[in-house]
Write a structure and sequence with these properties.
The chain is mainly alpha-helical. The protein has five helices and nine strands. Helix content is 50%, strand content 11%. Pfam families: zf-C3HC4_2 (PF13923), zf-TRAF (PF02176).
Length: 244
Amino acid sequence: MGYDIERFVGYVNEGLLCSICRDVLEDPLQAPCEHAFCTACIHGWLVHHSNCPEDRQMIDVSLLRPLYRYMKNDLNRLQLHCKNREYGCEMVCSLESIDRHERECEYSQIPCSNAGCTVQIERRNLDGHLAVCEYRSRECPNGCGYTILSAEDTQHNCVTELRTELELLRSEMICRVEEAKHEMESRLDSQRRHMVQKESILQNEIEELKSQMSRMMSDIRSLMAAERQHRQELEQAELEKREL
Protein backbone atom coordinates (compact mmCIF):
# COMPACT_ATOMS: atom_id res chain seq x y z
CA MET A 1 0.00 0.00 0.00
CA GLY A 2 1.12 3.54 -0.77
CA TYR A 3 1.13 6.78 1.24
CA ASP A 4 -2.35 8.22 1.85
CA ILE A 5 -2.73 11.07 -0.65
CA GLU A 6 -4.60 13.13 1.98
CA ARG A 7 -1.34 13.52 3.93
CA PHE A 8 0.35 15.48 1.13
CA VAL A 9 0.58 19.24 0.87
CA GLY A 10 -0.34 20.65 -2.56
CA TYR A 11 -0.85 18.93 -5.88
CA VAL A 12 0.49 15.42 -6.53
CA ASN A 13 1.18 14.48 -10.16
CA GLU A 14 -0.95 11.60 -11.44
CA GLY A 15 2.22 9.78 -12.57
CA LEU A 16 3.31 9.50 -8.92
CA LEU A 17 0.21 7.53 -7.91
CA CYS A 18 0.16 3.73 -7.73
CA SER A 19 -1.97 2.27 -10.52
CA ILE A 20 -3.42 -0.29 -8.09
CA CYS A 21 -4.06 1.39 -4.69
CA ARG A 22 -4.24 4.96 -6.14
CA ASP A 23 -2.17 6.31 -3.25
CA VAL A 24 1.24 7.96 -3.58
CA LEU A 25 3.92 5.43 -4.55
CA GLU A 26 5.74 3.65 -1.74
CA ASP A 27 8.95 1.75 -2.63
CA PRO A 28 7.97 2.06 -6.33
CA LEU A 29 8.57 -0.29 -9.28
CA GLN A 30 7.83 0.36 -12.95
CA ALA A 31 6.63 -2.04 -15.66
CA PRO A 32 7.91 -1.96 -19.30
CA CYS A 33 4.66 -0.17 -20.22
CA GLU A 34 5.80 2.64 -17.83
CA HIS A 35 2.97 2.23 -15.34
CA ALA A 36 4.25 2.53 -11.76
CA PHE A 37 3.18 0.61 -8.67
CA CYS A 38 4.02 0.19 -4.98
CA THR A 39 6.22 -2.88 -4.62
CA ALA A 40 3.75 -4.57 -2.25
CA CYS A 41 0.81 -3.78 -4.54
CA ILE A 42 2.29 -5.16 -7.77
CA HIS A 43 3.71 -8.27 -6.10
CA GLY A 44 0.28 -8.99 -4.63
CA TRP A 45 -1.37 -8.39 -8.03
CA LEU A 46 1.00 -10.73 -9.89
CA VAL A 47 0.21 -13.60 -7.53
CA HIS A 48 -3.18 -13.90 -9.26
CA HIS A 49 -2.58 -12.09 -12.57
CA SER A 50 0.06 -11.95 -15.28
CA ASN A 51 -0.73 -8.58 -16.87
CA CYS A 52 -0.62 -4.88 -16.09
CA PRO A 53 -3.75 -3.70 -14.19
CA GLU A 54 -3.85 -0.54 -16.34
CA ASP A 55 -3.42 -1.66 -19.97
CA ARG A 56 -3.49 -5.50 -19.57
CA GLN A 57 -0.11 -5.97 -21.25
CA MET A 58 1.68 -9.15 -20.17
CA ILE A 59 4.27 -8.53 -17.45
CA ASP A 60 6.41 -10.62 -15.12
CA VAL A 61 8.16 -9.84 -11.84
CA SER A 62 11.54 -10.13 -13.58
CA LEU A 63 10.55 -7.24 -15.92
CA LEU A 64 9.86 -4.76 -13.12
CA ARG A 65 12.46 -2.01 -12.72
CA PRO A 66 13.08 0.93 -10.34
CA LEU A 67 11.33 4.21 -11.09
CA TYR A 68 13.01 6.61 -13.53
CA ARG A 69 15.42 8.90 -11.70
CA TYR A 70 13.56 12.13 -12.51
CA MET A 71 10.30 10.59 -11.27
CA LYS A 72 12.07 9.32 -8.14
CA ASN A 73 13.39 12.84 -7.49
CA ASP A 74 9.92 14.35 -7.96
CA LEU A 75 8.52 11.75 -5.57
CA ASN A 76 11.14 12.44 -2.90
CA ARG A 77 10.50 16.19 -3.03
CA LEU A 78 6.80 15.85 -2.21
CA GLN A 79 5.85 17.39 1.15
CA LEU A 80 3.58 15.52 3.56
CA HIS A 81 2.34 15.58 7.13
CA CYS A 82 3.70 13.22 9.79
CA LYS A 83 1.48 10.16 10.35
CA ASN A 84 1.15 11.29 13.97
CA ARG A 85 -0.66 14.46 12.97
CA GLU A 86 -3.82 13.26 14.70
CA TYR A 87 -1.86 13.05 17.98
CA GLY A 88 -0.57 16.61 17.67
CA CYS A 89 2.56 16.46 15.50
CA GLU A 90 2.64 19.43 13.11
CA MET A 91 5.79 18.39 11.22
CA VAL A 92 5.69 18.63 7.42
CA CYS A 93 8.74 17.25 5.61
CA SER A 94 9.77 15.70 2.32
CA LEU A 95 8.87 12.10 1.48
CA GLU A 96 12.60 11.35 1.37
CA SER A 97 13.01 12.19 5.07
CA ILE A 98 9.58 11.23 6.47
CA ASP A 99 10.64 7.75 7.61
CA ARG A 100 13.57 9.15 9.59
CA HIS A 101 11.34 11.73 11.25
CA GLU A 102 8.61 9.24 12.14
CA ARG A 103 11.14 6.85 13.75
CA GLU A 104 12.09 9.67 16.13
CA CYS A 105 8.77 11.55 16.36
CA GLU A 106 7.84 12.50 19.92
CA TYR A 107 4.19 11.76 19.13
CA SER A 108 4.80 8.17 17.98
CA GLN A 109 2.97 5.48 19.92
CA ILE A 110 5.54 3.11 21.46
CA PRO A 111 5.15 0.23 23.94
CA CYS A 112 6.12 0.57 27.58
CA SER A 113 9.54 -1.00 28.17
CA ASN A 114 8.49 -2.71 31.42
CA ALA A 115 7.93 -6.47 31.09
CA GLY A 116 4.25 -7.34 31.39
CA CYS A 117 2.96 -3.84 30.61
CA THR A 118 0.83 -3.64 27.44
CA VAL A 119 0.36 0.15 27.42
CA GLN A 120 1.12 2.07 24.21
CA ILE A 121 2.31 5.58 25.06
CA GLU A 122 3.54 8.60 23.11
CA ARG A 123 7.36 8.75 23.11
CA ARG A 124 7.29 12.21 24.74
CA ASN A 125 5.24 10.84 27.66
CA LEU A 126 7.23 7.63 28.18
CA ASP A 127 9.35 8.88 31.10
CA GLY A 128 6.27 10.07 32.97
CA HIS A 129 4.54 6.73 32.43
CA LEU A 130 7.58 4.72 33.55
CA ALA A 131 7.61 6.64 36.84
CA VAL A 132 4.09 5.44 37.71
CA CYS A 133 3.83 2.18 35.74
CA GLU A 134 2.55 -0.65 37.92
CA TYR A 135 5.03 -2.98 36.25
CA ARG A 136 8.07 -0.82 37.04
CA SER A 137 10.83 -2.54 38.99
CA ARG A 138 12.72 -1.24 42.04
CA GLU A 139 14.76 -2.53 44.97
CA CYS A 140 13.07 -3.52 48.21
CA PRO A 141 13.00 -0.47 50.53
CA ASN A 142 13.85 -2.71 53.52
CA GLY A 143 17.31 -3.35 52.13
CA CYS A 144 17.11 -7.05 51.28
CA GLY A 145 18.32 -6.24 47.75
CA TYR A 146 15.40 -7.97 46.00
CA THR A 147 14.09 -6.29 42.82
CA ILE A 148 10.32 -6.14 42.96
CA LEU A 149 7.48 -4.91 40.79
CA SER A 150 4.91 -2.53 42.23
CA ALA A 151 2.27 -5.16 41.50
CA GLU A 152 4.14 -7.60 43.77
CA ASP A 153 4.51 -5.30 46.78
CA THR A 154 1.88 -7.14 48.81
CA GLN A 155 3.42 -10.57 48.15
CA HIS A 156 7.05 -9.62 48.86
CA ASN A 157 8.53 -11.02 52.08
CA CYS A 158 12.13 -10.10 52.89
CA VAL A 159 12.73 -13.14 55.14
CA THR A 160 11.46 -15.54 52.48
CA GLU A 161 13.53 -13.87 49.78
CA LEU A 162 16.67 -13.92 51.96
CA ARG A 163 16.14 -17.60 52.76
CA THR A 164 15.76 -18.32 49.06
CA GLU A 165 18.92 -16.33 48.34
CA LEU A 166 20.81 -18.25 51.06
CA GLU A 167 19.67 -21.57 49.62
CA LEU A 168 20.84 -20.50 46.19
CA LEU A 169 24.20 -19.39 47.62
CA ARG A 170 24.53 -22.67 49.54
CA SER A 171 23.77 -24.69 46.43
CA GLU A 172 26.24 -22.62 44.41
CA MET A 173 28.92 -23.08 47.12
CA ILE A 174 28.36 -26.85 47.20
CA CYS A 175 28.71 -26.99 43.44
CA ARG A 176 31.91 -24.96 43.55
CA VAL A 177 33.35 -27.17 46.33
CA GLU A 178 32.53 -30.29 44.32
CA GLU A 179 34.12 -28.77 41.23
CA ALA A 180 37.26 -27.87 43.24
CA LYS A 181 37.34 -31.38 44.73
CA HIS A 182 37.10 -33.02 41.30
CA GLU A 183 39.79 -30.71 39.97
CA MET A 184 42.15 -31.54 42.87
CA GLU A 185 41.50 -35.26 42.46
CA SER A 186 42.22 -34.97 38.76
CA ARG A 187 45.47 -33.12 39.48
CA LEU A 188 46.50 -35.70 42.11
CA ASP A 189 45.79 -38.57 39.70
CA SER A 190 47.87 -36.84 37.06
CA GLN A 191 50.75 -36.28 39.52
CA ARG A 192 50.47 -39.89 40.75
CA ARG A 193 50.72 -41.22 37.20
CA HIS A 194 53.68 -38.94 36.58
CA MET A 195 55.44 -40.15 39.76
CA VAL A 196 54.82 -43.81 38.87
CA GLN A 197 56.26 -43.17 35.44
CA LYS A 198 59.34 -41.46 36.90
CA GLU A 199 59.74 -44.25 39.45
CA SER A 200 59.72 -46.80 36.64
CA ILE A 201 62.34 -44.82 34.73
CA LEU A 202 64.54 -44.48 37.85
CA GLN A 203 64.20 -48.21 38.60
CA ASN A 204 65.36 -49.02 35.08
CA GLU A 205 68.30 -46.65 35.49
CA ILE A 206 69.22 -48.29 38.83
CA GLU A 207 69.11 -51.74 37.27
CA GLU A 208 71.31 -50.50 34.44
CA LEU A 209 73.81 -49.04 36.95
CA LYS A 210 73.84 -52.32 38.89
CA SER A 211 74.59 -54.19 35.69
CA GLN A 212 77.40 -51.77 34.86
CA MET A 213 78.84 -52.11 38.37
CA SER A 214 78.69 -55.92 38.12
CA ARG A 215 80.62 -55.80 34.86
CA MET A 216 83.16 -53.41 36.36
CA MET A 217 83.70 -55.70 39.42
CA SER A 218 84.19 -58.65 37.09
CA ASP A 219 86.76 -56.67 35.08
CA ILE A 220 88.55 -55.62 38.30
CA ARG A 221 88.73 -59.20 39.52
CA SER A 222 90.18 -60.27 36.16
CA LEU A 223 92.76 -57.49 36.33
CA MET A 224 93.75 -58.46 39.88
CA ALA A 225 94.13 -62.12 38.88
CA ALA A 226 96.27 -61.08 35.91
CA GLU A 227 98.39 -58.90 38.20
CA ARG A 228 98.96 -61.78 40.64
CA GLN A 229 99.93 -64.02 37.76
CA HIS A 230 102.29 -61.38 36.45
CA ARG A 231 103.85 -60.92 39.91
CA GLN A 232 104.36 -64.66 40.31
CA GLU A 233 106.01 -64.79 36.92
CA LEU A 234 108.34 -61.93 37.93
CA GLU A 235 109.22 -63.66 41.22
CA GLN A 236 109.94 -66.90 39.36
CA ALA A 237 112.10 -65.06 36.90
CA GLU A 238 113.95 -63.38 39.78
CA LEU A 239 114.67 -66.76 41.40
CA GLU A 240 115.94 -68.21 38.17
CA LYS A 241 118.14 -65.14 37.74
CA ARG A 242 119.67 -65.63 41.17
CA GLU A 243 120.34 -69.30 40.55
CA LEU A 244 122.14 -68.44 37.36
